[in-house]
Design goal:
Layout (H helix, E strand, L loop, with lengths): L5 E4 L2 H8 L4 E3 L15 E5 L5 E7 L5 E7 L7 H16 L8 E6 L8 E6 L2 E6 L8 H12 L3 E5 L18 E6 L6 E5 L2 E5 L14 H8 L6 E5 L5 H8 L4 E6 L2 H13 L8 E4 L2 H11 L3 E6 L4 E3 L4 E3 H12 L3 E11 L6 H14 L4 E7 L18 E7 L14
Parallel strand pairs: 1-3, 8-9, 13-14, 13-16, 14-15, 16-19
Antiparallel strand pairs: 2-5, 3-4, 4-5, 6-7, 7-8, 9-10, 11-12, 17-18, 19-21, 20-21
Helix pairs in contact: 2-3, 4-5, 7-8, 8-9
């Protein structure tokens, strides 16, 4: 596809943001005056004095109307894409990934290919487009990946709009498409931290394994020996498998989806872990926490990694506000000196605000929490310092103190 040499003028605020290195142009009064352009068109960004600023990929109907490809005048050519992909691959070759065959290979803005990610799952690659602007260039990207890595197959996983409104059975539908090569098995076995997990490249909105938590699961494995572990919003059980493989005495996994719990059992079995030593509960996490508080012994580690938004018959969860309630409900089940591990991938909630939610939950739960570790996504998910949105994952490890909380009056707990 030959890229036309056209330009778009951006306003003073966008000029400042671009000069600070941020890769997005957000729709504003200036972009509304832009001439009509096609999705995926390559344009030059100029300031009001027609000074060149950057080359960008146009997505005119979205909030992010353009994404910076380069700060030099370029076209999307095979040679340009080869250089960007080779740079991303070299970085992964420098990382400690020898015991993993599932990891992020190209991380959008973090590898200077904004709006597109590529994940490795064994002998297969999975492309996801976070901007429709990449659709006209997908064939060229696929050709480059095939030339560089010779995968058995390359899939694209479709990302539908308004995922909150999708039906409850969305994860049983087919969202993946084979672009080139041979089809993968419906359940594909991959390695992460030496453990085996089953993923699905065609079915479901997600594959069944969130790769950005790989290093955090490795960290968990070093903390669980002989412990009783509770995993809330356990999904397909990746954290639960890591805990059990790390020597946890007992792992209880809670998720609202019976299908996910069945997939979690399959992951346990794939690693030779005895299901009789561990528990799986299908139900709303807040409701089940109340039941466990009445009948269960305390847990040594409670981990919560909820989606940014979820709805069950009993409750509606959102990261803002819901996190505090979840922490407060979990703390009575946590032993003194036990670990509360709380994680969120909500991009619009920054680390400072997330810690405030944890603080509010601790005060509501009548406990004192000390943060001993604050982590993010693994090193295969790099992000530019100029792109704070790239550091989206918050993974906080707190210790429950046996001392009383600093404020005794619940009315003052905010």
């Amino acid at each position: 596809m030959k890229n036309p040499q056209v330009y778009r003028v951006v306003g003073p605020e966008t000029v400042r943001i671009l000069e600070l290195g941020h890769p997005w142009v957000v729709a504003d009064s200036f972009t509304k005056k832009w001439p009509t352009g096609g999705c995926g068109e390559v344009v030059h960004l100029h300031d009001p004095q027609k000074r060149f600023l950057a080359t960008a990929l146009l997505d005119p109907t979205e909030r992010v109307v353009a994404r910076v490809l380069d700060h030099a005048p370029i076209q999307i050519t095979k040679a340009w894409l080869l250089q960007r992909c080779q740079s991303a691959i070299r970085l992964r070759q420098q990382l400690a990934l020898t015991d993993s065959t599932a990891y992020r290979l190209i991380n959008a803005e973090g590898d200077f290919l904004p709006g597109v990610t590529v994940d490795r799952y064994g002998d297969y690659l999975l492309v996801q487009l976070y901007s429709k602007a990449w659709q006209p260039h997908l064939k060229l990207l696929t050709d480059v990946l095939q030339e560089l890595l010779s995968p058995r197959g390359i899939y694209e996983k479709h990302r539908p709009q308004n995922t909150r409104q999708l039906a409850a059975n969305a994860d049983t539908k087919k969202y993946g498409t084979l672009l080139t090569g041979k089809a993968a098995p419906q359940s594909l076995a991959v390695k992460e931290n030496g453990l085996t997990f089953l993923v699905q490249l065609e079915q479901g909105l997600h594959t069944g394994l969130f790769l950005d938590q790989r290093s955090n699961r490795r960290d968990l494995m070093q903390r669980v020996a002989g412990k009783r572990v509770l995993n809330l919003f356990s999904y397909t059980g990746a954290f639960s498998v890591a805990a059990a493989a790390g020597g946890a005495r007992h792992v209880t996994s809670i998720d609202a989806s019976g299908r996910y719990n069945e997939m979690a059992r399959e992951n346990f079995s794939a690693n030779g872990l005895d299901l009789r030593n561990h528990g799986f509960i299908t139900g709303d996490c807040l409701t089940e926490l109340g039941t466990l508080t009445q009948r269960s012994a305390p847990f040594d580690i409670i981990l919560m990694d909820p989606p940014s938004f979820s709805t069950t018959a009993q409750n509606r969860f959102t990261t803002r506000g819901g996190t505090a309630d979840l922490v407060a409900a979990a703390l009575p089940l946590l032993s003194a000196h036990g670990l509360l591990i709380a994680s969120s991938n909500h991009q619009k909630v920054d680390t400072a605000d997330y810690l405030k939610e944890l603080r509010r939950g601790a005060l509501l739960g009548g406990a004192d929490l000390r943060i001993i570790s604050l982590r993010g996504q693994g090193e295969d998910f790099p992000y530019p310092l100029t792109f704070p949105e790239g550091r989206y994952l918050k993974y906080a490890i707190g210790v429950k103190s046996d001392c009383p909380p600093p404020v005794a009056d619940k009315k003052r707990r905010t």
